[in-house]
Amino acid sequence: MMVPLRTLSEALGVDVDWHSPTRSAHIFLPSGLLAIPADETLPDDMGSVIIVNDRIFVPLRFVMYAFDANVEWDSIGRAAVITW
What we know:
Elements: E1 2-4, H1 5-12, E2 15-19, E3 24-29, E4 32-37, E5 50-52, E6 55-59, H2 60-66, E7 70-74, E8 79-83
Antiparallel strand pairs: 1-6, 2-3, 3-4, 5-6, 7-8
C-alpha cells in the first residue's frame, strides 16, 4: 500500500523534509534519521518511492518498520492493520 509520505509523517508526529542534493526524503524519527531515496529501490524488496505531482508516496510497510511496527493486510476489510 502506497501512502503520501508527508501525511503519514504528520499522523505519526514526526517531521519530514526533502533533501534536494540526494533526491531523498528525510524522516526525523525519535531514534534517528530515515533517508528514503527517490531514485533507488528500497531494501528488502519493499519497492520504490513514487513521485506524483510533487508528492512523495512510499510503501506503508517500509516506514512503519522503521517505527518497529508490524503491518498486515486485511483482505476482507481491505485495510492495512498496524500494530506496535
